[in-house]
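Late entry, evening session. Most of the bench is empty. Finally got around to the prediction I had been postponing all week. Sequence below, unchanged from the version circulated by S.P.
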Amino acid sequence: MDFLGLAGIIVALILFLVLVYRGCAPYWAAIICAIIVALTNRIGIAEAVTDKFVNGMLEVIISLFSVVFLGAIFGRVYQDTGAAESIANALMKGFVLKQEGRKRITAAVVVLMVVGALCTIGGIDGYVLVFTLFPICIVFAKICDIPRRFVPALLCLNCAFMFAPGSPQIYNIMAIAGMKSQIPNFVEQGAFGIVGQLESVSATSGLIPGIVATVIVAVLSCITLIRMINKAMDNGEHFDFGPLQVPANANEERKLPHVVVAILPLILVFVLFSIVGLDVFIALGAGVILGLITMFPYLPKVDARGRALSPIGSIVNTLNVGSGNYPSALLNVVTPAGLAGVVTATAAFGMVVGTLGGLRIAPMVLLIIVVCVIVAITSSPPAALMISLPMFVGATTGPLLAQAANAASVLIPMNPHAILRIAAIAAATFETLPFNGMIILCLSLPMCTHKESYKPMFLMTVAYIFIATIVAALLFLIPGMV
């Protein structure tokens, strides 16, 4: 084992966590840490930064460009038109305002989870969705007197649906990419049985276990958050804007699209991507176009500088602002993948992976361990899925191919749909540790600290998702479960 190289990786990752936790931009922090990895693993600095780091990002950018780019525009359409607010208002009037006391808190939490679920399954990028939901969560918190320190957790209520079967989000897309990236290798070996299995996976693979896992996380998250909020209110805590600026138009009524009109683009994206099976670019593109057509009258008539906009100008303004948000969203996702690209190019990392792959344990347990360890090391689910899935498929099929007289008849010794779904859920476990960019964003918007707000976030996005991963794996032990 290369102990110096391994020590360099550990030091670099800890430093990355500390720098980001202290508020440093992950962009330069990742490069500094990549240089540390390079120096301790005898890799040239120029090669590490301009080759390994950049290639690590590019691999993920290629897979995620569509969902982040169009997801950012889609989210902006829902923000500018007030469509997300329309859905939230309809649910609030129907289920929240009619309730009193503790029942109102329960209704508010469930409604916010439903709004987040609809937007997530409908294709709005998770990073952008935080900005879309934040003003809605603040309004809900104010009306229901929920302490502001719980707003970050309210923003995370959609976490159960990020890995849900059919959801056009990073976890499903990268899990599919990780599985199918090995197809050329098996074609060269004539292992067409394995090729057929890999080609059969989709965003809805592992449907039933995936749905059960989603329900587990959603239910436990709601119960936990409701109990914590009620306990805080019993202790005399109330909502306050604190250091936040009170919105100038907080009490103004805004004309919003009808809730049915607001939901239609979300339904279209889900149907085209998950049921029809079209590429996520086509599905999200169709959602954006339908949203602009059906909710055009609700687009802003003035821009951020107060200048009047023509009808065409309103559309262009929304497209400009939405597309302007995507570089930041994409870089926040792929920058850790750049550091992961340097880490994974080292001999020390190869030895760690080899050690994990050589563990003589049940394949499902091995898969969960490998994905969880790599996502914890890299803080990048895309990188973890692109590393762990090819490694796992190769490690489990390599010995079989070496012994087979007819490679074409060899199959993966584990249900490929189970591999995809377990990996997609497991990749969401240790991503949201305190230093994660999404966690920091959710805390910064309502101006809360980790000490005030992180506990429910940890339970919702780490602990409960890990439990759901185990349950999903156990369900796949049932014969015929796909």
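Two things to note before I forget:
Residues 3-475 form one domain.
The chain has one domain: 3-475.
Will write this up properly tomorrow.
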